[in-house]
Write a structure and sequence with these properties.
With 71 residues, the chain is mostly helical. Helix content is 93%, strand content 0%.
Length: 71
């Protein structure tokens, strides 16, 4: 069992290091073309949308819980 876990961990680590090296090249390319700001803006917009959706769900669930406890 430990051999499989160690092998899996090493594979994940190798993949992560490879992806990190590749990501640096992508970031340098986007930064040199000033497109990195567009990428950051899109990611920030997606993140803000997720946060707003979670807040909406939390309020809706809280309202349903209050209605359930009231009845």
């Amino acid at each position: 069992m430990n051999k499989y876990l160690l092998t899996l961990l090493l594979c994940i680590l190798g993949t992560f290091l490879s992806a990190t090296a590749h990501a640096k090249g992508i970031v340098e390319t986007l930064d040199s073309e000033n497109k990195i700001y567009v990428v950051v803006l899109v990611l920030a917009t997606i993140f803000a949308g997720i946060i707003l959706y979670l807040v909406y769900l939390d309020r809706k669930i809280s309202k349903l819980e209050k209605e359930k406890n009231h009845n």
